[in-house]
Amino acid sequence: MEKHFEDGVEYPKKMDNNDKLGHFRHRFYLTKGVINLCGNSLGLASKDAEESAMVMMEHWKEYGIRIWGLEGSKYYLYSEYLAGLMAPIVGAEKDEIAVIGNTTTTIHQAISTLYKPTKEKYKILVDDINFPTDRYAVDGQVRLKGYDPKDAVKVVPAVDGKFFDEDMFIEAMTDDVALILLPAVYYRTAQVVDMKKVTEAAKKRNIIIGWDLCHAVGAIEIDLNSLDPDFAVWCTYKYLNGGPGSPGAIYCNKRHFKTLPGLTGWFGSKNETQFLLRQEFDHKQDASGWQIGTPGLLSMATIEGALKIILQAGMGNMRKKSLHITAYFMYLIEKKLSSYGFTIGNLRDDSKRGGHICLEHDEGYRISLALIARGVIGDFRDPNVIRLTPTALYTSYMEVYQTIDILLDIVKTESYKEFQVRRNLVV
């Protein structure tokens, strides 16, 4: 897609009229007068997700407990069914994916299963700017093994607190490192990490490598079969549009199918023996064996409809539009906002940035509140980052153009000064 952008209202009109993904926008619930640029945090509700949830409700109302046996036990095996829909989106086999719990739970499950520290090889390698729940889980698992996180968690610091070169991680892969957990896309800076380079380096050193794909799945193209990491985890409520707090997912490489899960529960037992209710765990030796308890069908149902939209749109098409519309966004920022103290805090190279723009300003927090008051929904991350995400499936070029005009008005009139500096509970 060409990247020769033009200023003025005719350009976004032309792009919207020729947007091959434009028709998907009408399958989402859009609020009149609101521009939603927060898909990196919570995707919008779709009519498809609503329909799959309502089907589930109707089945529950009509069949009660018999819902588990409907459609060839589809709902009893719902994690496996959803894994089949998710597999082509992440480039993995169906039996390597399970939809369980939430992202933090899946991290605990993966590390408790694959972290096997020895006297010589016991450290977990992380960075210092990833979303903190990953670090909380890592520290907790280290403590459970009897180690002090100050000694057993090896932290690679970001350059200027923002970015990484992959060689920094590789240089930190010393002989005492047993496991690595890193994000594929950074939530604050949108940096995309070269997963292939880092994964290959880890495997050469016999280090377990896992990826947090929360800001990557649905935003960039992923091929786990080609990458061949040991595990990966991701949420479904951001770019996958599964709904607030919808369940997380986990990828378990086939080479670990026979490894007994660190957190065992009855839903990880083999299907044929599960209801024999024996007092000994009968491990189902694939990713679904990493399930713990009874799946929450109602919170999983929305994922079904949401994933079908993505499969129809195609991740290649979505990534192509995402790169183009975010580049257009950056073009307008530089042309119209740079003289008002705004800078772009994400990398520019297509291969190095995810799905969101990191707009930086010293008054970023109050400007973000002023944007929300004007109907533009983004979010803020310390110290000065306004995250704005033109989502491929439902954001128009005209909305990007309008957002720039609203931002320009906010800083020209200094209307952001009407808002308090004190932080809200959720931003």
From TrEMBL:
Organism lineage: Eukaryota, Metazoa, Ecdysozoa, Arthropoda, Hexapoda
UniProt keywords, alphabetically: Cytoplasm, Hydrolase, Pyridine nucleotide biosynthesis, Pyridoxal phosphate
Name of protein: Kynureninase
Signal sequence annotation: none
Modified residues (N6-(pyridoxal phosphate)lysine): K238
Record EC number: 3.7.1.3
Subcellular location: Cytoplasm
Enzyme class at the top of the EC tree: hydrolase
Residue sites binding pyridoxal 5'-phosphate per the record: T104, D212, H215, Y237, W266, T294
Pfam family, one: KYNU_C
InterPro entries associated with the record: Kynureninase (IPR010111), PyrdxlP-dep_Trfase (IPR015424), PyrdxlP-dep_Trfase_major (IPR015421), PyrdxlP-dep_Trfase_small (IPR015422)
